[in-house]
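Researcher: Structure for this, please.
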Amino acid sequence: MKKQANLEKDAIIPLFFKYYIPALTGLLSITINQVIDGLILGKYVGETGVAAVGLFGPVITVFIAFLLTLVIGGGIQISKNIGSKNYEAAQQVFIFITNWTILLGGLISLSIPFAPGYLADLLAGAENITLHQHTYDYIFWAFIWIPFFFIRVLWGSVINHDNAPKVSRNASLIAVIFNIILNIVLVIFLGMGVEGASIATGIAIVISVIYLWGYLLKEKGHLKIRQFRFNLVYKELKELTFHCLPTFVSELSFSVGLLLINTRLVPHGAGPVSSFGIITFISFIFLRLFTSAMVSALPIMSFNIGAKLAGRVLETIKNAMGITIGLGILVGGVGSLFSKQQK
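Model: Predicted structure, token format:
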């Protein structure tokens, strides 16, 4: 059995990468699941299937922007309390953010009678009947699995902050593997089309949540699912919200921009929408390289803030910035190389 990372004493760079790879796997899995849906639908349904997935992409990103208020703010509070050995406070944060995540996801699911139709009208318009129907089908089933998706993202994050990043990584891989298998069964063999792709993603996410639930039941970390209770009040809510505000604004503005571009492309047909969707997914993949650096640094920094080890906090910031700049140079170089090859 491998030794658990020591956030107080382990060298920062190796410690950073122990968190970076699982974080990158987790963040990429969200985009990869949509890419899988798009690829299979493109072959077996057509460009309207790809366009439907592409149109829903910015919608899920808007939801994630709001979820990040709990994910990032709650994660920082959990790590800080664990670092200061205030495990009861960390448990209170875990209960609070889980309850609000369930409530937020539940409200979205309860909007199924009217929201999917409204969004299909807004995103796909009424002119292209096939695109409108495919968009509605994908959104309808997605709204059913949204609460599980929210829990999957939240629990993956808090388990990561509770010094078990590989568990979060495994949950992401499980979701991707089952999504592929179920897409093959539902879309290819059973011919369920766009509905099948969305159902496949939902079932894969539920399986991933069950895996995380099983880990929490073992109580290997500081967070206890057996002590779960209903609680929507947290005395340090202002601090929790403050931590995630910059990321929330960034994600929300980016998502709204994509939504506006998509609505402008819809009158030109499913082809341009599906093409832009593919470009968006590619850009998400590259962006997650940098987002993962932030996500990886947060548990280390928050823990050491709680442990009052300011030197390690500063060292983490410096190394995370250096690695991010290096990634930027690498990505820019690769992009420039491929650009020249195309010419």
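Researcher: Any notable elements?
Model: Residues 47-83 form the longest helix (37 residues). The two ends are 51 Å apart (CA to CA).
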